Protein 1
Amino acid sequence: MSLIRGYLAFCIFSILLILGGCGGGSSSGSGGNPPPPPPPPPSGPASGSEFLYQIPFTGDTQVSAVSPSTGALSQLTDAAPNLSIENMGLHPVVTPSGKFLYVQGFDQSSVVTPPVNAIYCFSITGSEGQLTSLPGSPFIATDLNDPSLFIGSMPNGMTIDGQGRFFYLSDSDGTNASGQSINAIRAYTINATGGALANGPILTSISVVWLSVQAIDPASKYLYAATEISSGLAIAVYAIDATTEVLTEVPGSPFYVTNSPEGVQYNLSLLVSPTGSFIYATVTNFVYGGPGTFVFSVDPATGTLTVVPGSPFSIGTYASGATLHPNGNFLYVTETTNQAVTGVSVFAVDSTNGPIDTTPVSFVTSADYFGLSLIDPSGQVLVLNDSYDTASTFTIDGSTGSLTAAAGSPFAVAPGWESAIIVKIP
């Protein structure tokens, strides 16, 4: 019997060893399948990230991260390595999705001689805002043998509709199929998935001079372009066909803004209120000053513009530019004296009725340079180009509109930057 008991004990012990070796008696995983690998880190920029893209006149596109809470700019990063874009000073544009960025430049390929204007198309892919060129970029036209499709030698404005479907570019000194010099507003369809551009209808004229297309209302119903008429400056308004992107000028357009005194070349910038109810048309001249900002109410059904009583509103003798806060309650005006930027004035705006309070609620001084000012989409930071290679940044008080210099400001930016955009990743 003892031999039998010993044999049974040996068998039981052997069975336990076998089960243990197969992991059958363990819940720790030490002898089972390895744990699954950790998920890969998220690709692309994080949601809520903000980036300042800087396009020098000629050179590499640079990018800095923007801190909405502090106003600080991160160290510069080459946004598109090994790609130098010769830009005419037009600000880049971005789709509302924050996926695709478009930059005007000159195509330098050997296919086209001499180089012609083109649109460089990028996707925003890097965690620090780095850009990846889209297939087919730079985009010129589908048929290089048809000069009517070329972007003219003087591109002067770009804008994208609020749904990210249509891209519009205005230019002058183009050429039509008959060899005539033309001015044009060119429509392109944006591929929602890949961001590529496709040629759309072209609105051309040998007599109408569009200074630039500048804005589309939030509902994507109307496109606004600064234009010249015999009596001075005006706003051309076009209804946008939501299916074909064809532009049709609304009745009464162009709407007169102001005359241009002999020998004085005014600049006309157009801003649309967040509700689309008002157009703020700022008329400026570095040397002679300007009449100020004209405010127009918009008829949502017809697109007709009507001057708001009290226009023009004085925003300083030598204003060089204006930027509207995303909430529509404040206008930020870059002030100049004898062509030198001296600071930024903040004016309260009646966003319900349109008028501007001409007494500044705030003023900050700055150095004397270009005077380009940008407000981030969150409405928390203002960036001012006040030096050849630096930018001053300010945090914005959302209730009063006042500005406070950010700690560490000014920050290094791309040398000679002349155009820029702040992009927020949704």
Protein 2
Amino acid sequence: MKTAFKLAVASLFAVLATSQVNAATVSFTGNGSFSNLNCSGCNITGGGNILDMSGRNNSTLTITDIANSVQTNTNDTLLGRITWVNRASIGGDQDFTVNYTFALSFTSPSNQSDTQVFNLHITQPTNPPGDNVFNISNALLQNLGPFTLAGVTISDLKFSLSGAGSYDGSTWRNPEGGTSILNITADFTAAVPEASTWAMMILGFAGVGFLAYRRKGQHAVRLA
């Protein structure tokens, strides 16, 4: 009986280990770009990744693209980043628009991709008020996907703030002279069998062990 039970337990762990390995690593690329700029004295450089805005020495929004492979069951995994260096605005207010496009692509454990466009509205009042980026919405970011990659679920996509300024889920503010960062993050979760599935698996392996035990007992009776 002990041998049969050990075999059943070993088989259960082998199944679980194989399932975890099959969905263990996620490979992805998060790419951003600026386009359709409507601004006097502004420019898009760096292959679309840098927005040079008005101001002394130019304020900038800089996109950092991310390519990475991570393990599942990780929260707040970095997918992309925008860094805002806000220098003093001089020579008149600026009020303009630009598109920011974020594309998320997965290559492992399966291929999927999606793109979201944000129609940003940026204001740069002359000092002392800080500057604003409107319409950079968490609600729009969460339109990406949904992604389910061979048992791995990508969820809780969001912008999160670090550095100076503030972010309320739609409007990003940065004081004069501040450096503010919006990170794009998500949770990667491997599928876990439901309680009923666990129960069926355990009962199945227990049944295999019991049948092996009965056959062993019957064999012993015949020999006697």
Protein 3
Amino acid sequence: MNKVLVTGAAGFIGSHLCEALLARGDEVVGVDCFTDYYPRFLKQRNLDLLLGQPGFRFVEGDLQKARAREIGAQ
């Protein structure tokens, strides 16, 4: 099992990447900042499919402003 950080996890590509990583047994931390250029309801719909899955944790925030501890870096 790998620990993987996926940025843009609520977007189309990021959410599908998270699904594939979880399916192969990886532990995933997904990060997304919900920028205004992408409708939030679309990203939330993608994210809803991931939330609650074993091995997935979501952090809403901007990587430029986040602290490593907030996203689970060790």
Protein 4
Amino acid sequence: MKIWVDADACPVVIKDILFRAAERTGLQLTLVANQPVRIPRLHCIKFIQAASGFDAADNEIVKRVIPGDLVITSDIPLAAKVIEKGGHALNPRGELYSEDNIKARLSVRDFMDTLRASGIDTGGPPALNQGDRKAFANNLDKLLTQYAGNR
């Protein structure tokens, strides 16, 4: 299992949790973004700078992900592509996307895009809170434990 991070919009606190997990487990953690991202100097943590452009970082992740890999993203279309390729997708709030819930999440996303396009202010997501961070850390740990048990 490799861990891929859609790093352009990933909160710093979530990156810190991921850095600690990579250091603890030795799993390969790769952050992908359009802009340079600071990473710790550890052999298991890498950074890939994607070309500039819409969805370039997402496309880079999809190109490289293989079945069983984990992708950290809040981008629902990216999560859908990862699941389609047999990977796992976890958002920074700790929600694990799956075949069972991704179609509904895509529908809600598309509906909200339609509302925004018609001029309705739907607001943005609330700030990441302590419960979100805990849910993320717990679900990440659960996935890493499952992986370790299957090796």
